[in-house]
C-alpha cells in the first residue's frame, strides 16, 4: 500500500510515511484496498460560509465523482448564523442541522457534541473529520489519513501532523502549552503525537461507536486516551499532511479551550481538583472575576443507543 512504513515512537503511537504527492498507481491501490468498505467525510461547521464551499466542492469533485473513494460527505451545521448550510448544500454536501440531532437526543453544545452527531448521522466504515475553516485543504489529505486504516487492521485512529507557517499565525499553542506537558506527565505513550488536537483525522466506526464523546474542547484528547486505554497506544498513528492554514484564534478565546483540555485530561488521569468539587461544575475564572463554565459533559457511546434511537429525521 503506497509503500507504507511505520515507525514506533516510544513503543506507542506510530508514524506512517506516505509520499508528499500520491501517484496514480497509489490512488489505484487505495481504491482496491477499500474492498467494499465505505468512507464518510464529516465536516463540523459553524459560520464558515467563506471557506466551506470550496472545501466541499473539492471533496465532491475529486474524491466522490472522479474516484469514488469517498462514499458520503456530511456537513454538520452547528447553528451557523451565516449561509454556511446553504453554501455547503449547493456545493454538494449532505447538510445536517445540529438542531435535528438535538430534537431526537436532547440539547448539547461544543465541538465534541458536533463530532458525536456526525458519527450518529453518518454510515461509513471509516470516518474522516476535517475542520470547516481550513484554507489549504488537499484531496490527498483524505487519502493519506485512510491508507493506514485500510492497510493495517490494528490501526484504530490516524491523526494528521502538519506544518503551520508562523508568518500566518502559527498554531498548536494549546498543544504545546497544555496538552503536551500533561501527556508527558500522565500519558507518556501518546507524546509521539505531533498534533494531538488536530482537526483532521480518521478512525474506524466500530471503534468510535464504543466511545463516549466529551462535548467540549477536550474531545480530541479524550478520544486518544480512551482508544489507547482500550486498544493500546500503538493503535493510534499519524501521517504528515504538509502545511495547514486556517483561521487564527485569539489567546482570550483559546483560554477556554485550554481549560477544557486540561480538565478533561486530569479527569482521565484520575486527578481530583478543588474547583467544582461541591457542584460538579468546573469553571475558568478570569482576572476580572468573571467565570466561564467548562463544557465537560459527555454524549453516550453510539453503540449503547437502541437501533431505533439512532435515527435523525
Summarize the model shown.
This protein has 313 residues and is an alpha/beta fold.
* Residue-averaged pLDDT: 90
Q: Biggest sheet, in brief?
A: 9 strands, mixed
String of helices and strands: EEHEHEHEHHEHEHEHEHEHEEE
What does the radius of gyration come to? 19 Å
- Structural class determined from secondary elements: alpha/beta
Regions with pLDDT < 50 over 5+ consecutive residues?
Answer: 1-10, 165-171
Q: Cα distance, first to last residue?
A: 39 Å
Count the DSSP helices: 10
- What is the helix content? 25-40%
- Numbering strands along the chain, what is their spatial order in the largest sheet? 1-2-10-7-8-6-3-4-5
Proportion of strand residues:
15-25%
Number of domains: 1
Instruction: Classify the fold: give the CATH topology.
Output: Spore Coat Polysaccharide Biosynthesis Protein SpsA, Chain A
Q: Overall 3D geometry?
A: globular
Q: Any idea of the CATH class?
A: Alpha Beta
Query: What name goes with the CATH superfamily?
Result: Spore Coat Polysaccharide Biosynthesis Protein SpsA, Chain A
- Extended strand count: 13
Question: So, CATH architecture?
Answer: Alpha-Beta Complex
Topology:
Elements: E1 5-8, E2 14-17, H1 24-34, E3 39-45, H2 49-65, E4 72-77, H3 84-91, E5 94-97, H4 98-105, H5 111-121, E6 126-129, H6 140-151, E7 157-163, H7 173-186, E8 201-204, H8 205-208, E9 213-214, H9 219-231, E10 236-243, H10 251-268, E11 283-285, E12 291-293, E13 298-299
